[in-house]
Design goal:
Length: about 300
């Protein structure tokens, strides 16, 4: 994953959003981009509480988190990265505010669920709905095997075998872009990459398998040192990816796949929506972009 702009993180006071911010801080090291922490006060809260008090509480929340993040960054073996941390308290609808901020973002990061869902496995309303409307890539962070604040230099790694970075692969260009970001993240973090292909969804299995092997060779050429393999598994793509998320450190998907023109009211396809709602790991949803490296990918026609 190669960041091309600032990273925005929605902060609501939950442990999930704090962990998401720490994850983002680590990914920003060396990029020169800023970490932007955004706390949204919803109009519903203003009917009960005074806006001044809510703004003050939000500012205190962000100041405290910024301090913790600065300490985490300074504890890195190579010293502080110099990443700028900016904070913003906004009155409005959380989905609308964060979607607006994502317009020019390199990445939008959200916690899996908010402050009102302590220890819940159910994804929050904003975290589920926003990725389909935000124009940037969106990462929905799930705190898994460890905590981001435990180690200033690395993300927690799942102890079970079969972990690493998992990307769903089909012949669409959406999947090609997602595979590039998955491989980049894997190399940067020293993790293996698994390219999963659901063979039950293939109309021409032999051709699709050949193209998937071509994608594997293409990624290895683009990312020297990449540890990667492709797996052809029976079953529907969504079910396979959800199963893989149980041990994955990160699950990466294109926001849309082969059925990309069936429902253009949302950027998310059926598989992406199903996986996002049930995944047990963090999920990175990648929109299509024109990437010159796609020209080297084996032609898909």
């Amino acid at each position: 994953m190669e960041l091309t702009g600032d990273v925005f993180v929605g902060i609501d006071g939950s442990m999930q959003s704090d962990e998401a911010a720490a994850w983002a801080l680590k990914e920003l090291r060396g990029t020169g981009h800023a970490l932007r922490l955004v706390h949204v006060i919803t109009p519903a809260h203003l009917e009960i509480d005074d806006e001044t008090e809510l703004r003050q509480a939000g500012e205190e929340l962000l100041t405290s988190l910024s301090s913790r993040l600065s300490e985490l960054d300074a504890a890195h073996p190579e010293g502080a990265s110099g990443t700028e941390i900016r904070t913003e308290v906004v009155v409005g609808d959380a989905g609308e505010v964060l979607s607006d901020r994502a317009y020019d973002a390199g990445l939008l990061v959200l916690g899996h669920h908010g402050a009102g869902q302590v220890n819940s496995r159910r994804i929050g309303t904003v975290s589920f709905g926003l990725p389909g409307h935000a124009l940037s890539a969106v990462l929905v962070h799930t705190a898994g095997a460890g905590r981001e604040f435990d180690d200033p230099a690395a993300h927690p790694v799942h102890p079970a075998p079969g972990g690493g970075v998992v990307v769903g692969l089909d012949t669409s260009e959406y999947a090609g872009v997602a595979a590039l970001d998955a491989a980049s993240f894997a190399v940067r973090n020293g993790l293996p990459l698994r390219l999963l292909v659901g063979i039950d969804a293939l109309s021409e299995r032999t051709l699709a398998e050949r193209k998937a092997q071509g994608d594997l060779a293409w990624l290895r050429e683009e990312f020297p040192g990449l540890e990667a393999e492709v797996e052809f598994l029976p079953g529907e793509p969504a079910a396979l990816l959800i199963q893989a998320s149980a041990t994955a450190d990160l699950l990466v998907m294109g926001k849309r796949g082969l059925g990309q023109f069936e429902a253009m009211t949302s950027q998310l396809g059926r598989t992406s929506s199903a996986v996002l709602s049930a995944a047990l790991s963090s999920v990175l949803l990648v929109p299509y972009r024109r990437d010159p490296r796609l020209r080297k990918r084996e032609p898909q026609d």
